[in-house]
UniProtKB/TrEMBL annotation:
Coiled coil: none
Membrane topology: Multi-pass membrane protein
UniProt keywords, alphabetically: Cell outer membrane, Membrane, Receptor, Signal, TonB box, Transmembrane, Transmembrane beta strand, Transport
Keyword Signal tagged: yes
Pfam families documented for this protein: CarbopepD_reg_2 (PF13715), Plug (PF07715), TonB_dep_Rec_b-barrel (PF00593)
Keyword Repressor included in the entry's annotation: no
Record's protein name: Iron complex outermembrane receptor protein
Domain named TonB-dependent receptor-like beta-barrel: residues: 351-566, 676-927
Top-level taxonomy: Bacteria, Pseudomonadati, Bacteroidota, Cytophagia, Cytophagales
Gene3D superfamilies, per the entry: Carboxypeptidase-like, regulatory domain, TonB-dependent receptor, beta-barrel domain, TonB-dependent receptor, plug domain
Signal peptide positions on this chain: 1-22
UniProt similarity note: Belongs to the TonB-dependent receptor family.
Amino acid sequence: MKNFYKVLFFIYLTIHVTTAYSQNFVSGKIVNPNTSTVVVGATVVLNGTSIGTTTDTSGYFKLVNNRPLPWELVVSAVGYQTQTVTVKQTSTSLVIRLAEANQLLSEVVVSASRKAEKVQNAPASVSVLSAKVLNTASVAIDPVRELANVPGVQVQQQSAARLNIEMRGSAALFDTQVFPILDYRSLVGPGIGTFQSDGSGLNSIDLQRIEIVRGPASALYGPGVVSGVVHFISKSPIDAPGTSIELIGGTLNTFGGSVRHAIRSKDKKVGFKVNAHFKKGDEFTLDGSEGTRNAAGVFTSQLSKFKKQVQDPIVSDQGIVAANQSAAPILLKQSDLDPDSDGNMMQNFWQNSSINGTLEFRPKSDTKIVLAGGTNSYSSVYYNSQGEGLGQATEYWTQARFQKKGLFAQVFYVNNNGGSLSKPSFLYQTGLSTIVARQQLEGQVQYNFVTPKFLNADFTVGADYRNATTETGRKVYGRNEEDDDYVVAGVYAQGKFEVSKKLDAVLATRFDRFNFIDASALSPRLALVYKAAPNHTFRASYNIAKATPSGLNTFIDFPVAVPVPGLFDVWLSGQNKAQKFGDKPMIDFTAPGLPDLPYGTPGLPLAVAYGALTPSLLISLQAALPATIFPLVQAILTNPANVPQGTTGKFTGYNLFTGQPLAPVDTKTAQIRTEKSFEIGYKGTFNQKLTVTADWYHINASGFQNFTAISPTIRFSDQNLSADLSGAVRTTVTTQLAAALQANGMPAAEAMATANQIGAAVGGAYAQGGTALVNQLTPLFGIFGTVEPDLAPKDNMAHNMAGYRIFGKANYWGIDLGINYAINNDLSVFGNYSMVNKNTWNATELGEDPNSGLIYTLNIPKSKYRLGLLYAPQTGWRANVAFQHDDSFFANFGQYSGDTDVKNLIDAGIGYKLKNGLSLDLTCTNLFNQRYRTFVNMPIIGRRAIAKLTYTFGGKK
């Protein structure tokens, strides 16, 4: 029996070994030769059969079969030309270079699900700007400008150097709800939520591509990512070795240079690159026509609001910036701010620079280790809701990244000095430095794995931690300086389930904990991806995204403007504490000597003006009136019962920034914002030439914030103080003096005649005094006073408190459409259209008191569209042209509130590339010089032309 089992075992082993050795196999990877990236999800099939496989997230495939060689492999992928490859022998290192059918499409993205996947199957709306597009259409100065023609993206060109980006949400000036990252590292200012584009260290010659994910992504990326993700992906030194040198020059005295040098080992396992740039140019500056008009129609230019020196603020015993800065150290004198003596204190140039290095290891095909670090510095004008400022800072950063199969981990550290005493950041309207030193330590770990035998699912799980700290010396964070830690920790999970061959379901959720508001948040996501055909995908998703205010919006506590030095300022207080007015708020008058009055007083009480004028007028009347008459008049004027009643003129509470009516309404402390969004989308290609994307989304937002004035500014108007006061005094003096004279024995007729004469004289004196008082107060009529909440500093100034209003609800829907038609591999045309059905809400629509005067705006146009053409051969002539249209819209940005200009802009470029790697390009933004302001009171933006010379050698041209 034992021999029988041995025979069976021998037969089995012989069959198994024979079968195994009769199988042939081929393995290798599929790459895009133009971008040096792998092609994920490519199909490899034995010609004439259904036997095949697909490439994994690293572009690798392995096909095993017992059919005899040679094999004909049919290789295909969406967006690429189908290719037939003959394999004559077994191979483990086959490399197939798959040509793009439409070279403007990049079919692999890593940003939609934080892992590699075909863009066609991504559970979000995605666009990709490839290296070819960036090289051909680049405007050279700032890569962020390349996003201007992407569907759904709003790029604000605030000045020559300052850009901001937004998608599908409320646009801001100084911060963004978009999450910009460079090689997985956040570019958002540590702890303060700002995106300083020109200080980010981005360098065009080192960019491989830009991936844009529209819509909320907080389920994977964390709180605050409610509008989208912009992922700048740099070139790998292993995949793209060589040296590139770029020189630029153009209008606005723009000049600069960039260099990138990358080397790799012979076995392509180690690579190193160094990347540096320096750029400088003139700004679009204010010309003096910007400004505001008060109630009397008096114009005040923005430039006249600027201080003529910059000081390092003195901190008072209250732990805040002191009202009196007369003894504060002077950091910059007028000659420093205005070296050309033209009266404009604003810096008229910008400059930025960066240098960084990257070391990359690939010990195995599925393993990557990246170590990087660098420094960026910048000096440029910026605009926020509180006014104009100059940002100057130096930033250092370092990053370590590890990938092995499905495991991804990274840690990075950023240290930004926020400026220095020799090169301070400051606000022009206060003349006080605003140095905010900040650091951020962040880490992520993520693991991706598949379970083909369990629900045929693809899982992603991860955790991340963010710790941001700031140091302002109480000069910006004031009373919150010792309580400004900003820590966010979160865990997340996503599962992609194959419901059927054509339908995928994506479920994701994230849990975050926030220390600074002692709260937690859950951000779930559900998406369905229906692959109707290989080139046509439909998508539906529902997201609940969460966001919290930035550290800056939470802890800020300092003056941001001083309209009347020593008397009245604008004080910004963050959301760390609520601003409350109490049951009986009072008006604190700007004019010295005027007593506080209850809010709701209709106008200036005549008693106030009477009390201010009477002491001095009695002195003049004593010299003017007969000695026998003056004591009687004095007794009448000093009798409390004779103080004139009633008011003159009208008090109106309004928002200092927008001019809209405003009542004192308490604020709320920082809280979690929620955006519930539903989206339906389509992406398809027709004949490998026409690409169509269409997205419809609906957003229900609650708990969102908006910068605004919290204190009503009190305007004094429609006054007739001189006549009202003199008339009341004349009547009283005449009547009572006549009675007094008769009581002293004077005949009635004579007493009345004398009283009329004296009454007229006294009334005339009060008329003159009232006129003088009005002349003295007229400059203050527009800011006659303010209503201070409890957080206003307690000193001798009137503080108009500003802050962040948290609203209850806003609903709107929008559309993003995009088409791209590849006439051939070199020539394509594109167009896109975006709109929202609503971009402004009044108090009633927000669920607020209709009398509060509160408003909320998205600060984006209701409608915009782009049209363009791109001619991008590998060598020879190349060109691009694009037309941009933005509707006018009302923006609510403090001093920059108002209706924006309609934009009809044409950008164009032409260039020539030689086969030796040398290229020359000339680009022009706003070709026909349509002069416009991005927002009211910002500088006029005009034409800008840039020439660029680039030479690449020693690697892939």
